[in-house]
Structures are given as C-alpha cells and as structure tokens.
Amino acid sequence: MSPITMPYTPVILQQDLYVIIPAAGLGTRMGLSDSKQFLEIAGIPVLARTLLAFSKFQETFRKKVHAIVVTGPENIERVFALCKEYKCDFVEKIIPGGETRQDSVACGIRALSELARPPIEIDIVFIHDGARCLIDEDTLEKCFLGGVAYDVCVTGTPCKNTIKSIVPAEVSGEESSPIVGTDAPLVDRTLDRALLYEVQTPQVFKYSVLQNVSERAAAIGLQATDDTALAESLGIAVHVIPGSYRNIKITTPEDAVIAEYFLS
User: How far is residue 142 CA from its own chain's centroid?
Assistant: First the structure.
C-alpha cells in the first residue's frame, strides 16, 4: 500500500484535530485490581503515554488538538490529576462513559459539541484507545492526512498469520473429543491472508460523518465491535491507513512486557 502524501494546503490548515479517548478498561485480563490505564510502562502510566503522544504530535505538526477522555466515573479525578501532572492541557473534558465501548464513544461524540471550540463539519476526529500507548508520531500524521483525504479510515497492519474461519458448533454438530479433552472447532475455510488487515486505532472520521454514523446506528440499534464497522454496516466506505506493528493495545500481562521491550 503506497503512503498517503499530499501538500499542506489551506484546507488542511483549517482543520483541527479532535480526539475521543476511551479509557475505561478495568484490567481484568491483566489480573489487576486497578484500571489498566494507570499501569506504569517503563515508569509512566499507560494513559499518560497515550496522551503524551498526542502532545508531541500537536507540537511537531503544529495542529491544535482538542481531546476528550472517557473513563469510569470513579477515575475522573485520577485522570484529571494525571493530565495536570503530565501537562496535557489539550484534554478539554474528562467524562464518564457508558456500559459498552460503543456507548462510551457515543458519550464522547455528544461531548464534542460542548467544547469551547466545537468541531465544524470538515474537522477530523480520531477515536483512539487509551490503552494503545505506543502510538507513534508518523502514524498519527498519516491518520490525520487520511482524515483529510477520506470520510472514514482506520489504522491497520497486514495480517502476518494464516487465518481460518470455523463452522459454528451448532451447525457442525461435532462433539468434543475425549482425547483432546476440549472443543476443537471445525474449520470452514482458510482466508486469503493477502486481503486481511488487523485494525487498530486511531479510527478516523470527518466530524459530520461521525455524527451521522453515530445517530443512525443509535436509531436502528446497530452494534459493532469498532467504530468504523458501524460505518461499513451503513454502507460508508472505509479506507485503511498503514499502521505500525508496535501500536499494540495493553490487554494482557504479556502486552506490558512487549511494550517495555519496545521502549527499551
């Protein structure tokens, strides 16, 4: 996939960057009693590292960033203190989320209109996981330019592994093997790896399109595991922006070890 390149036109200079950061992960799979957003990676909390990446982007790219952090109500004061400690003054709102990630993002979208400088139609909105703390400046720049070029795009990397789809157990009728000792799903087919991407965040929208997708999805009760999947379901084209294999999400203890290795 060829990189996105384009001149810095007046249109680009008119567009601000808005960022919704869902940061309500409980750390259950990490075996933590605390939110994983506050787990320290090489001495700095996960969420702080994520925010500092946007701070650096704002400074280098000279593009104003307006951020909203969506977190659990019990963590609002802690996130506020973290933003103050790491001088992330571009975080303009810290709000409680909903029951699901999709609900939390919807809360963030509604909060955009309440900012001192609400987004206009052509402004770019990133939705970026608070737990993806290794996001790099190059990927952020490519995502912003992708947001200028397209209505919707998503960061992704070519799939390295062979992926097989399986037959649902209720369809296959297969029983567990006493030798294996557990369910061994039946393979349906092997997918063409050349056509597969593992998606990450940022997921990128023009503000007017994001509003439209959110409102239409809510009206018909549409649910999806990521934000651009809602756009796909509504017939809106989604483009893939080349990402980085280092842009991992801190979900398991192994992820924290890998992140520290990358940082070292």
Answer: 15
